[in-house]
């Protein structure tokens, strides 16, 4: 089973948040949505779970009872304990009794939260609370799991736990889609979707995205064309869409951060030229 969006447009007043977006999310795979602020990541996810109605196009998703959704908020109730939060979420989806006890025990162990089972959610660290939110989103073994930046602000150890849970959910047959601001993290996904101002710039596996990247990226201390450059550490990288970089500039092998920035600059330059 494959879920996703086909040729979807979404507008909020005069602002067009998604432009002809098509994304496929197969069962058993993790899809990462990446892009800067205002790229449309949250709108895409909210459209997929039917919190936002598209102006055009089609949404392919199971019933709400078969979706697990973690919004950008913590996803749990501060006044309830870890166990109570999971019991409530399980009950909403019809998971009760021995089945819930078994599922809760397994999830807390995977998330590293077993010792905090009786602790109030308000007393958890940020990373622990995000992991609790993921546990609540997957307690009913959803067919489609949708997570809005689940690892933002989470410490490295908790990020490893989160990825373990997502990988296990996908291995069990869930279609998993997540937005993330961590590009190194997105490289682990089976499929990447790069958004900019509501447009899909490129999508595919990390290897496919790298192999299909056009042009050249160079390294320099002082950019030849500042509008096509960005800072990376103590130096600048500069994008040459036609591959016509001056021979004196050293060429670098672009990583995902370079690719996302370069393609965003190219799209905006093209939009400005057409305007």
Provide a descriptive summary of the structure in words.
- The protein has 8 helices and 13 strands.
- With 275 residues, it is α/β, with parallel strands linked by helices.
- The strands form 3 sheets. Strands 5-6-7-3-8-9 form a 6-stranded mixed sheet, sandwiched between helices.
- Helix 4 runs parallel beside helix 5 (156-171).
- It is globular, with a radius of gyration of 21 Å.
- It starts with a strand and ends with a helix.
- The relative contact order is 0.15.
- The mean pLDDT is 94.
Sheet with the most strands? Answer: 6 strands, mixed
Percent of residues in beta strands? 25-35%
Poorly predicted regions are: none
CATH hierarchy, class of the largest domain? Alpha Beta
Write the topology of this structure.
Blueprint: E1 2-12, E2 15-26, E3 30-34, H1 41-48, E4 56-60, E5 67-70, H2 82-92, H3 97-111, H4 126-138, E6 144-148, H5 156-171, E7 175-179, H6 183-186, E8 191-196, E9 199-204, H7 206-211, E10 216-220, E11 229-232, E12 235-240, E13 251-252, H8 256-274
Parallel strand pairs: 3-7, 3-8, 5-6, 6-7
Antiparallel strand pairs: 1-2, 1-4, 8-9, 10-12, 10-13, 11-12
């Amino acid at each position: 089973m494959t879920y996703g969006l086909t040729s979807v447009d979404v507008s909020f007043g005069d602002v067009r948040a998604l432009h002809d977006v098509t994304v496929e999310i197969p069962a058993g795979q993790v899809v990462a949505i990446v892009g800067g602020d205002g790229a449309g990541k949250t709108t895409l996810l909210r459209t997929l779970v039917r919190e936002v109605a598209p102006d055009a196009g089609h949404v392919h998703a199971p019933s709400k009872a078969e979706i697990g959704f973690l919004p950008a908020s913590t996803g749990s109730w501060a006044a309830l304990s870890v166990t109570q939060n999971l019991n409530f979420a399980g009950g909403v989806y019809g998971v009760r009794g021995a089945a819930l006890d078994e599922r809760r025990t397994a999830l807390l162990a995977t998330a590293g939260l077993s010792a905090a089972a009786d602790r109030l959610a308000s007393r958890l660290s940020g990373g622990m609370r995000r992991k609790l939110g993921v546990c609540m989103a997957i307690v009913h073994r959803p067919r489609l799991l949708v997570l809005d930046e689940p690892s933002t602000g989470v410490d490295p150890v908790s990020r490893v736990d989160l990825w373990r849970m997502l990988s296990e959910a996908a291995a069990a047959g869930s279609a998993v889609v997540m937005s993330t601001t961590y590009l190194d993290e997105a490289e682990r996904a089976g499929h990447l979707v790069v958004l900019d101002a509501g447009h899909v710039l490129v999508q595919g596996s990390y290897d496919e995205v790298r192999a299909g990247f056009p042009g050249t990226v160079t390294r320099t201390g002082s950019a030849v064309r500042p509008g096509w450059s960005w800072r990376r550490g103590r130096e600048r990288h500069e994008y040459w869409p036609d591959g016509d970089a001056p021979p004196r500039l050293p060429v670098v092998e672009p990583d995902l951060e370079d690719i996302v920035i370069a393609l965003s600059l190219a799209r905006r330059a093209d939009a400005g030229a057409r305007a």
